[in-house]
Structure formats: C-alpha cells, structure tokens
C-alpha cells in the first residue's frame, strides 16, 4: 500500500494533519493503533483555549496575542525551575495565532463550545472553553475523513521508518496490533507502507514504563498515567532511530488523576471528612495538598447525578470507587467520621446554592455548571491517586513541522505534530493548550506535507 502522505496516529494532531493534507490534494493514509480515531481528545475533559473566538467577542473580553503569549511564558518559566526546558517561542506564537483557525475548523465540523472555564491563576482573561461533547472529536471528524477520501488502517501499530537514499520513504506497520493490549502488540503481519511524506502523530510516551523510567527514574515509572494506552512513544522511538533530536523528555509532571470536567462537580475530603484545598486549582497544588494529608489519602466525592452524566470520566479514575445510599454510609465506606462528612457536604451544598462566586475557605471559583450540590443518591467516593500527566518531550522541529536531527538539519520527508513535538508542550499546564497545540501544529504539518509532495501551493 502507499499514499502521498502517511500519518502515524489519529489523535487530535493526526486528525487535523490528515484533513489539511487531504484538502491540499494529497492522498492520505492514517495508521491508527486503536480501533477508532480521536485519541486522547475523545477521552479528555475537552477544554480548549482560543484567541478571538466569537465567545470572547460576544462577552466583550479584550485579549491579544501578546497577552496569551505572556501567560504561556509565565507557565514555562515556572516549569523550567524544576525541569530545565527548551521553549520554542515562535512555535508558541504559531499556536496562538492558529487557535482562531482551529476554532473555525471545529465549528465547521459541527463541534460546539458551551462556556468559559475560569482559570485566573493561569489565564489573564477568559479564553478557555469546554466542548459540548468530547465524543464529537471522533464523530465529527469521521464524516470529513470519508468526504475527503482519507483511508484509516485501524489496530495497526507503526513500528519503523523506511529510509531510502537518506530520505524517509514510508513506515513499516504491524497489523492487527489490538489497541494497546500488550499481549497482542507483536501479533499480526508487518506491512510496508510507502509514502512521499510521513507525519509522526502517535501521542506521548506516558504509557511506556521503560521510557518513563529512562527519562524520569525517580517518579512512578510503573504507576498510573493520563491518557490512552497506545501513548507508548512509538513516534519518538521511530524518529530517534533516524537521528531526530528529542527535547524536554524529562518533563513528565505529576498530577492527581481526575478529569477537570469531573472535578468541577466534586469535592475532595481527607480521612477526617474535611475539605482541604481548592479542588479545581492547579495540578501542582492538588498534588501538594494530597501529599500533605494523613496517610496521603483522600477521596473525591460526587453524587448520582454527576456519576450518570460523567460516567466516561469516572471510568478512567484509578482505584476502586465506593458507592453508598447515604453520606453516613459513604463515610463508613471510606473510614472517616460520619458527622464531619455530613457537615462538610451540607456546607458545600449551601455554598453552591448561594450562588457565591468564590469559596471563602480555599478560594475555589470553579463550581458545578448547573450549581447543583451533592444531593442525589447514590453517592460516590473515588480515591485520589497521583500519576503521570502528559509528558512534554518530543522532537525539535522547523516552523513547517519538519523533524530536525541532532545537528539541526532537516530529516527529509519526516514531520511531527502533537505530542511528538517538544517545543510547545511545556506550556500545556496553562490549561486548554494540549488539544489546541496538537490541532494547530497538525494543520500546519498536514499542509507542509501536502506541499512537499507537490499537491498544494
């Protein structure tokens, strides 16, 4: 099989790259390790930050490219104190400028955005919004793939780049690889796919314990991680074998494993049955707060209404949840004083019902969208567990998303997008940047690949 552009991975970066390459006139073949497209985006919270969206304009919010970039710079400076990072300022500017185009593309595909998500410690103004339904990151792209004639090879794992005469000429793919199932990773047949250009879009490497151990040996190499089980660093390893320079690989930040869209409906309690921090605060603050608790144990609490509405996020939580018909029964299940837990829940419910914009105890400003408290049985307690966030490491690239080698030269016909790029993701902790960055760079990478094979101006 062959195509003018072959893309390894159908997450947000790979999907955007495929659409732009196909719209540019190139034949496109996507190799996807899972049984569906969408990647981490289709299982995410769905928060994205946009500059100059109609939501901002309708709300009269004054934002600018420079203000957005300043917020990104602040986040990178903070993270650099621990990790020491290479930050590509021009690539970051490209992401900010391209955010408006990504917003337009998603609206064109039928994806809607509901409301602003306030993050004043990270974003100077409201620019982060939530998608109406994260499954639309799959279902809205599938018809466009069909319309453009984009082929997708499912359950196929990209294993090796084919290099001829010093140029990347395709990918060797193992078929019937069985999603991220370790027992099936080496089954199936290996097939060579020829290409005029190859785009690496395989995601991060948080699901690869060996890579995590190599780059950050002190931190939870075999522990839980955010995202899908096919984020094994396949693109990183393939590109490295042909000389690609990897940067920022040691940045694998810790976080408490919970989706942000779930935590806005939850409270967190310790073994005393008391709240102890701003549940919707920064990832680092959540980790520090949990580590400061007795036995380093605590639980997220939600009610039946939230459990039904956000079951896909609850299913991703590590550990065994405790379900109970009453708050007193829930307290017994997690080993905290029932009177204290009952009082904590009542105080929270009163705060939410009051319409207050700030929690006086911990400064929380993110509340349930419907302003509903914990009132609907059964009640659920989910263990708070520290795991690995999306890593920041990836390839050093050109403005066209061509992969550079360790000497700074371009590796001919090889591109990288999404989590395979290492210069922008250090700023992802700002909030709303992960999917945005992947799609913005994916669009550029797709156009660049189409131009390279002579199908677009």
UniProtKB/TrEMBL annotation:
Residues 5-433 form the FAD-dependent oxidoreductase 2 FAD-binding domain. The keyword Oxidoreductase applies. One of its GO terms (biological process) is steroid metabolic process. Its cofactor is FAD. It comes from the Bacteria. GO terms for molecular function: steroid dehydrogenase activity, acting on the CH-CH group of donors. This is FAD-dependent oxidoreductase. It comes from Candidatus Nephthysia bennettiae.
């Amino acid at each position: 099989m062959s195509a003018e552009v072959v893309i390894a991975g159908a997450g947000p970066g790979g999907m955007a790259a495929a659409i732009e390459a196909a719209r540019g006139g190139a034949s496109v073949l996507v190799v996807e390790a899972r049984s569906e497209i969408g990647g981490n985006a289709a299982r995410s919270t769905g928060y994205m930050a946009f500059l100059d969206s109609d939501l901002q304009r309708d709300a009269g919010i004054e934002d600018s490219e420079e203000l957005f970039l300043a917020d990104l710079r602040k986040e990178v400076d903070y993270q650099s104190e621990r990790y020491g990072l290479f930050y590509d300022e021009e690539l970051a500017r490209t992401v900010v400028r391209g955010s408006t185009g990504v917003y337009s593309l998603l609206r064109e595909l039928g994806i809607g955005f509901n409301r602003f998500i306030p993050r004043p410690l990270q974003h100077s103004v409201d620019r982060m919004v939530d998608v109406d339904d994260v499954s639309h990151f799959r279902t809205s792209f599938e018809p466009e793939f069909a319309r453009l004639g984009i082929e997708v090879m499912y359950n196929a794992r990209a294993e090796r780049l084919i290099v001829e005469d010093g140029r990347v000429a395709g990918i060797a793919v193992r078929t019937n690889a069985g999603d991220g199932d370790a027992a099936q990773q080496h089954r199936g047949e290996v097939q060579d796919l020829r290409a005029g250009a190859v785009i690496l879009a395989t995601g991060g490497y948080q699901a690869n314990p060996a890579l995590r151990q190599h780059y950050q040996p002190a931190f939870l190499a075999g522990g839980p991680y955010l995202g899908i089980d096919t984020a094994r660093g396949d693109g990183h390893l393939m590109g490295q074998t042909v000389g690609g320079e990897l940067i920022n690989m040691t940045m694998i930040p810790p976080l408490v494993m919970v989706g942000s869209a779930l935590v806005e409906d939850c409270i967190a309690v310790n073994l005393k049955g008391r709240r102890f921090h701003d549940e919707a605060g920064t990832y680092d603050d959540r980790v520090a707060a949990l580590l400061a608790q007795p036995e380093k144990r605590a639980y997220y609490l939600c009610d039946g209404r939230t459990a039904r509405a956000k079951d896909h996020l609850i299913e991703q939580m590590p550990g065994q949840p405790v379900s109970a018909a009453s708050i007193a029964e829930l307290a017994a299940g997690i080993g905290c004083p029932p009177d204290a837990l009952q009082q904590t829940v009542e105080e929270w419910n009163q705060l939410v019902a009051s319409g207050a914009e700030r929690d006086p105890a911990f400064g929380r400003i993110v509340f349930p969208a419907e302003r509903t408290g914990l009132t609907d049985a059964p009640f659920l307690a989910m263990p708070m567990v520290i795991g690995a966030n999306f890593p920041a490491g990836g390839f050093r690239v050109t403005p066209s998303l061509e992969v550079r080698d360790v000497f700074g030269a371009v590796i001919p016909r090889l591109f990288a997008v999404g989590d395979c790029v290492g210069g922008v993701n250090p700023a992802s902790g700002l909030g709303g940047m992960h999917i945005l960055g992947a799609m913005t760079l994916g669009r550029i990478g797709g156009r660049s690949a189409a131009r390279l094979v002579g199908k677009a101006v």
